[in-house]
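Milestone M4 deliverable, item 7.
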Amino acid sequence: PRYDVEMPETMEALGLRSVVVGKNHYGWSKEQARPLERGFSAAQIYDGLGSGMPGTEDFDDYDQWFQQQQPGENPLKSGGLGWNTWRGAKYEFAEELHPTAWTGHLARDEIQKMAAKKQPFFMKVSFHRPHSPYDPPERL
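Output delivered:
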């Protein structure tokens, strides 16, 4: 651990299952092809740090899921936007493929699973957007 006491470990010690979904920025283990969980018992992340394509350094959980849905497509191609641009463009794929939808659906699913088990939990949910690239789904 980075610190002597980490909040997820404290929650676990109190009997809560600790889960992180979405943006985490704790880092990625290339060796394990997993996010660094830092005390969370489960993690599904989209940090938005990689290129979104297989074979790259930060090929996170969202990138892997996206490639299962849209093999060979670049999830970052919307309007040719860069990471630090101030411009915006419509997301070029179906709304359900957007990182915001992915994060929301995973968080909902985790809550439903833990509720069904009547399991107390601590969950950190963090949405990568509204950070650039500014690429909302078309309906917005």
